[in-house]
Amino acid sequence: MLVLEKLLEIQELATLPTVTTKILQQIEDNNVDIRNVAHTIETDASLTAKVLKVANSAIYGLRTPVASISQAIITIGLNRLANIVIGVSIFSRFMLHSQHHTRQLMEKFWWHSASVGIVSKTLSNKIGKNYKEFEFIGGLLHDFGKLILLQYKLADYVKVLEIVTNEGVLDTEAEKRIFGVDHLEVGSFVAQKWKLPLPIVNVIGYHSKLTRLKEDIELSAIIRFSDLLCEMWGADFFEGYQIINFEEQPSWKILKERFPELNELDLEKFTFELEEDFKKSSEFLKIISSI
């Protein structure tokens, strides 16, 4: 489609940051040397500082603080650290290129994204699953396509938000009306061009179209359910829902089928338990938006 082709003309979208691209290539090697990965990350001083701050934050609750990238890799694992690097580098790139008059909109977007990441991580812990940080980074980047459309044509995306707000239609329908594509298609397109890990691509491209997904269904369902919870809890970003019947949501059906213990989940109590975790979202945003 024309819109997708034009997206790659935007400098920020043409390629991932060089360091991130190199790290992704390195971890694909079965014989990867963590010293080489650490050295690659450490060539970017700002990225190194942010990654270490995130690793030492309350999000991960490490018993022993990590003082170097090598130690972080040993402590939390290479794949988990690589996913943190992906999230941090993408966030930083788009924060730095945000226009001043979009600041309020961007803050709302990243608050929603960070909240979904945190809730996804908490929900994963609750059911005793570890997705190698894909649950957090997938939650952080699930609406990546919206961010791209905002960067592409802000005025047109404001029209999308007006349609969602005034007509009560869902975001994907409004996006199709204005751009001819929705944020899932856009985000998936760029994520594939960047060669991001497949679980992240699938979450970005199918989190609200789970019935079309053949891989990473469980992970995507966790992130989608967390996404909807955040929409209802005030950490939303114009999805268009006035009310959500969770029992009818594909994400909740998938999770209850795979994790029967969730049938007993008290959403009101779960909301209360997450109060401290929402504070972690704020901490993450402070760390990652600092220069």
What would you note in describing this structure?
The chain has a single domain (2-289), classed as Hypothetical protein af1432 (Orthogonal Bundle). The chain contains 18 helices and no strands. The protein has helices at 2-7, 11-14, 18-27, 34-42, 45-55, 69-76, 78-96, 103-126, 134-141, 144-152, 154-167, 171-179, 183-193, 198-206, 217-232, 250-258, 267-273, 275-289. The longest helix is centred in the middle third of the chain and has 24 residues, at 103-126. The protein is globular. The two termini are 36 Å apart.
Largest sheet: none
Beta content comes to under 5%
Distance between the termini: 36 Å
Q: Pairing-aware structural class of the strands and helices?
A: mainly alpha
CATH class, named Mainly Alpha
Q: Roughly what is the average pLDDT, rounded to an integer?
A: 85
Q: What radius of gyration results from the CA coordinates?
A: 18 Å
Whole-number tally of structural domains:
1
Outline = globular
- Low-confidence regions: none
CATH superfamily: Hypothetical protein af1432
CATH-derived topology: Hypothetical protein af1432
**Helical run tally:** 18
Sketch the topology as an H/E string, one letter per element. Answer: HHHHHHHHHHHHHHHHHH
CATH architectural category:
Orthogonal Bundle
Number of strands: 0
The helix content is: 55-70%
Short characterization:
The chain is mainly α and 291 residues long. It is 68% helix and 0% strand. The protein contains 18 helices and no strands.
